Each structure stands twice: as C-alpha cells, then as structure tokens.
Amino acid sequence: MARKDAAKTPPERVPANTVVPDRRRWWLAASATLALGALVVGRLLIGNPVAEAAPGDTQTSHRAPATQAGAATTPQQEVMALVNGQDIRRETLIQGCVERHGEGVLESLVNKRLIDHHCRKRGLTVTDADIDAELDRMAKRFKLGREQWLELLEQQRGVSAAEYQRDILWPTLALRKLAGSELVVSDAELKKAYETRFGPGVQVRLIVVSDAQKAQQVQREAAARPAEFARLAMQHSEDINSASIGGLIQPIRLHVGEAAIERAAFSMQADEVSKVITVGPQHAIIKCEGHVPARNVAMAQVRAELEEEIREGKLREVANDLFAKLQNAATIQNVYNDPRLRQSMPGVVATVNGEPITMQELGQECLLRHGKEVLEVEVSHLALRQALQAAGYSVTQQDLESEMRHAARLAGVLDSAGEADMRRWVQMATEEQDVSYELYVRDSVWPSAALKKLTGDRVMVTDDDLKKGYEANYGERVRCLAIVMDDLRRAQEVWDKARQNPSAEYFGELAAEYSIEPSSRSLRGEAPPVRRYGGQPQLEEAAFALSPGEMSGITQVGDKFILLRCEGRTETLDIELAEVHDVLSQDIYEKKIRIAMSEEFDRLRSAARIDNYLTGTSQAPAKAEGQAESRKDTAVRQASGVR
C-alpha cells in the first residue's frame, strides 16, 4: 500500500506529467457512470468495489461478511495475464492493487468491523431475509425484476450480486438499525420534500458577478431595460454555464438552494428584475421569466417514495457522526503506517478492538474489488514497455521532468521567475488524485511520457489547423433553440408540429415537452451557440445553413435526432489571426498530440496478444482491417480463488 507518510513529498528531481488524469480509466479516457441512489451510502462507507465476486457466491449473512480468501481450499492461479507471451503474476497484481487502493480498502475493512462489533454489542442483526427484502425493494424502486436489477448493477457499475449484498446492502441496513430513531421522518420534513418536488417554481435568468460595485451597475442597467437581461448575462455573468444561454437556469424550487435567492424569486412578477442579492463572496441579480404552477399530485401517491428519499438523505448525514462515535468507542491501530508496529506485528495491517486485519486479508479484498481494473493498468504498462523496447526508446528522468514542466506551464503553475513550479505542481497533482508521489509518477507521468516518445515526431500544426482553430474560437456562432430526441418517428412528429406553428414560443413549448436533454427541456430549447469546427460537423452544417427564424430539418448526431430553430448569429470577434497565432498553435498541438497518443495506445492494445486469466478472456492481435475482439478462450480459464 502506498503510504501517505512516504508519498506526498517529492525528491529534488521531480518527474512530471502533462495532465492530471482520471485514474478510473488510467491515464487518458473518461468513463460514464450510472447514478444509482442505492449505491450512495454503500460507496461512502465501504469504498468503490468494482470487481466481480466468485461465480455462484451469493450467500449473505447477518454478520459482516469476511473476505473470501479461498486460498486454503482452492489452488490459486499464479499467472494473472500474458501480454505477447510475457506474464503478469498474481503477487505483482496484488501488490499493485494494495499500492493503489490499499488505504481506502483498509478503511472500509475497519469500518465494517466497527459496524459488526457495534451491532453485536447492541444485539442487532441483519438477516438474509432483511437483505433479500431490501434487494427486492430496490429492484421495485427502479421498476425492475431482481435479476434485471442485479444485471444492471453488473453492467453499469461492475458490481456483482455478492458484492452488492455484502458491501452495500449489509452495511446500509446495519447503519439503518444503528441509527434507529434518527431516521424517523416528520410531517414537516415530508411537507417540505413534497413542496420541493411538486410545488410551484419560478423560471429566472441569472447574472453572477464577484465585484459589488459592478453588480450594482449591471442591476441598474437590467432594471432599466429588462428585455436586455439575456444580453447582459452573456456579457457580464461569471457563471459560465448559464451565461452562454442568456442567464437561464433550472427553475427555482421551494426549500432548495440559497434562501435569499429563493425568497426574491417567489416574490417577483414576470419581467421583474431583482435587487442585488449577496451570497457569500458573490453578488446575484435575477429576472423573473414566469412562475411554474404546482403539479397536481396527491400526497398519498408519493408519500412512500418521499419518505424513503428523506431517510436516505438522513442516513448519509448521520453516517459520519455515527462513525465518529464508533471510532471514539473503539481501539483502532493502523499498523501498516507505523514502522515500529510493523516490526512487532508482521503480516498485520490494523487491529480493531484487538482483532487483527492481516495483509493477506487486505490483499485479497483489494484483489476482489480492484483486481480487474488494476490488471488492465498492468497490461497497458507492459504493452507500453514492450513498444518502447521494440522502437529502441527509453523514458529517462529528463523526459519525466520535461513532462512536469510542460504540465505546470499549461496549468499556469509558475514561480516568481515565470518558470514551472514543479514542487507545487506535484503537490497539487497528488492531492487532486489522492495518490502517493510514486503512484503519480508510475500511473500518470511515465505512461504519458512513453506515449509522447512513440508519437511526438508524427504531430505538426498546419496552416489549415490554424485557420480552423481561429474560426472555432473567434468566428461567428449561431444562436439556436434545440429539441433533442432519441426516436426518429417522434422527431418527425415534433418537426411537423413546429412547421405548422413556426413561432419561437411554440418551439420552446415543444422543447419543454419532448426534448430528452435535461438542459434544453428545462430551459425551453435554449442551448449554447453553435460554433464551427466544434466537433459535431452535421450539427454545425445544419445550424450555419439557417437564417434567423428558420427551422432545420431533422439532424441525426449519433443515436440522437435534433431540431434547431435559428435565433440569429453572434458577431465575429475583432481579433486578427496574427495576434493569437502562438496561443492557437500551442493549443492545437496539445490537442493533436493527445489524439495521437490515444490512437497509439489503442493501436498497441489492439495489436497485442492478451490472455487475461482473471476474466477468462483472450484477445488475438487485430487484423489489418479490423479491431481485436475479446473472446472467451477455453484454454484461458478464469483464475480460481480470486472471484
């Protein structure tokens, strides 16, 4: 486990990286996740298990389930993967899992022991029947059968049925029982939740500035000319998300957000502009666009759902306090981070009320939760090392330091002399990723430097690149209303309705009713202006072909179908290409090198022979005209004693 005491202070020669990556997808890519309310408390308390439990291991217990090591009765697969014939061994993978995730997993093991000890002390149990009932309740909440719900968890979150029951449902139910009366929902709380969800709202535009004097000036101008509020928001507001669409925000609801803004909004009439509302260090001005009527929903229909949501919110709030009480009442020793204790208690990483948690337990739990993702990292590392060796390259300390300086300059982390402040950058990067210095270098710096070695001589910025970059950043843009749909037939029906009544107001009503994209639906079609070369050529072509007041045909972008109504165009900024040549050139180079690095990474992975014994899959090298496919291989058996 990468210990915090050894991690965060870099030596004099500090390796670096050009980006601060998301470790969930290693060094470059981002991952989309499905937000499932049932996971929130489990994740808070137990960490983020992503591995798959042993096939068929679905039993639950009224006691906190222990890690299933499996080593005592089942032979363990020593080779976890082969990459072009070169192996990654079990010991290496466990070490990698512990180094990357050991601290969080150890904390979760300690927390589970604490919960278990306290439940036993108070005579509380979570039975198999409790867990089965909660599983059925959660599936019903999402209008799914039990098997469908478990399959969704597996597909969207990588959480197996055994993990869900052991690491999420059990601690959640145990905490509910421990919290007891603290989770009781009062009539007043229920009334507030009902009013928030189904009560009236106010549609407003917003301007936010940090300078009080400027806020007063903008307010006077807006109050004098309310029709110009959208323009003023685009010109002055520091809230970039709303400024780009004329200050429009989601409707303000009761009992949510800043009370001063809520009071002002509900006291205003349509087209009225508020006084300056000071909220902390910022100053807000709102304009009422209209009032949203309450929805006619009977309390009896939604009472159970609202009570459940309130209880879950209360559980999240009391969890930290409850753990503080449990920890204060317990004797916990962190052995791993104490050199003296490590010598006197070999093989032990912590004790809870005298009961040891061993390194073997920690390693097995880390492997169970994170083995799959860490193995992908190790496979990628090995493929990169092989590619560097084949090309006759090596990543030197100088390369790593060059990456750091480059990253610091891009991020504006400079010292008083205007040079890259490497020490401060390392501190920022490791704190942001919550990793040790060694892991930051290994998982972020080195891969980026290696890929840059393999791709750097292929990238150059052309005159055409500069022209497109200038047009994208400083050229005119098309202001549009938009309706986004996921069904072609529905899109055709909506298009026909809009054609029969071509007004902007009716188009906004259609957006509010039919658009599946939350922002355009709640803002009645308002969307950020469309620019050229922004990455959506079909949409850009459709937008720039329109005249003010004209509606587009149906434009397909991926699996979505989009209707646009042109509201006009922005003006080209009065800036010459020569003035921004160097800035554009640097920005374009960074984007092109990142694309080249990503493509090279994908090429290396697809060109490799990868036998993954942890998942029981095998990938053959890609053919010249296609991508490698992952397949089940009868000669590659899933590792026993791991899942």
From TrEMBL:
Q: What's the domain of life for this entry? A: Bacteria
Give the residue spans that cross the bilayer.
26-46
Q: Please name the Gene3D superfamilies in this protein's record.
A: 3.10.50.40, Porin chaperone SurA, peptide-binding domain
Supply the Pfam families for this chain.
Rotamase (PF00639)
List keywords of the entry alphabetically.
Isomerase, Membrane, Rotamase, Signal, Transmembrane, Transmembrane helix
Give the EC number. 5.2.1.8
The biased composition feature labelled Low complexity covers 64-73
Molecular function GO labels:
peptidyl-prolyl cis-trans isomerase activity
Stated name of the protein: peptidylprolyl isomerase
Gene designation per UniProt: prsA
